[in-house]
Amino acid sequence: MRLSTLQSRLGGSAAALVVIVAACAAACARAGADRAADPLPETGTFSIIAYDTATGEWGGAVQSRVFAVGNGVLTAEAGVGVVASQAVVDVSYGPQAIALLRQGKSASEVVKYVWEHDPDPDTARWAKTGRQFAVVDSKGNVAAYTGPTAPTAAGDKQSAHVTAQGNTLADKAVPDSMVAAFNRTRGHLAFRLLAGIEAGQAAGGDKRGKQSAAMIIVKKCGGVWLHNDVVLRLQVDDSPEPIVELRRLVEEAPLPPSAVTNAKNDPACR
User: Fold this and answer.
1) Are 138 and 110 in contact (CB under 8 A)?
2) What residues form DSSP beta bridges with 157?
3) DSSP per residue over 160-176, as a string?
4) How many Cα atoms within 13 Å fall on the side-chain side of residue 72?
5) Are 210 and 183 in contact (CB under 8 A)?
6) How does pLDDT run along the chain (270 residues), one tens digit per residue?
7) Which of 20, 73, 76, 253 qualifies as a FRET site for 128, CA 20 to 30 Å off?
8) H or E segment at 178?
9) CA 83/CA 260 separation, integer angstroms
10) Same-domain pairing of 60 and 184
11) Host domain of residue 16
12) Residues 28 and 90 in one domain
């Protein structure tokens, strides 16, 4: 039906409503197109993940100039491994990697498989060539991928049972400094991971600054109370000095935790 015919039948007020609705629809379509064209926020993170052969713990630590970085970067499962997914991040990389590690795949196999099977749903603004992804498997083997379009400066560094990675860095040597600090630090895994991100910050860290940090450490039945695999899970979601606050929390935590069940007597903890 033509608009002129509708106007004559419905009257001026109804016709005006039709015109307003049409105008609103056009405006909404333009707004949607504008949002799709807007650049996504810049990402930037540096992290370290590792396996402690002496204690059988897997863990990781991370710092970034974003709110609550611990909500999406680190994924860990006792007896299985630990994963970091960052830069042009696909948070599903963490659960995908853990599922593959449960099947017995190595760290390098997992990194290769997950990236190659990434469907790359937003190539224009969130392409998989910008992903940064690291894995430590059940045996302590490590592997990492830093995509060619990850936010610069970006890179990763590996040593025995540990890998550090970062993007949007003030200096590309940040991961090297992190691994070196981890290797020369003694004591519980929490303090070694903490030394790693402290060294990363001292080497320049995220070039945008500091805002949040997180740490996770897991071990089969290694946490407090009964059947708890979480030795430590800490998040500093918003702070001018997130790593300083993370250190305060680590120093407050009893390590190793007290009130842990006796794994030798519990088949579920072996």
Assistant:
1) no
2) 164
3) TTEEEEEESBS-TTHHH
4) 16
5) no
6) 454 544 455 455 544 444 444 444 454 444 444 444 555 556 679 999 999 999 999 999 999 999 999 999 999 999 999 999 999 999 999 999 999 999 999 999 999 999 999 999 999 889 999 999 999 999 999 999 999 999 989 999 999 999 999 999 999 999 999 999 999 999 999 999 999 999 999 999 999 999 999 999 999 999 988 889 999 999 999 999 999 999 999 999 999 887 777 666 778 787
7) 76
8) helix 174-184
9) 25
10) yes
11) 3-37
12) no
Tell me the C-alpha distance between 198 and 217, whole Å: 17
CA–CA distance, 95 with 85 (Å, rounded to integer): 10
Amino acid, single-letter form, for residue 13: S
Which pair of tokens denotes residue 125? 């603004």
Look at residue 209 and give its three-state secondary structure: coil
Number of domains into which the chain is organized: 2
Q: Which two tokens stand for residue 113?
A: 């498989």
146 & 22 share domain: no
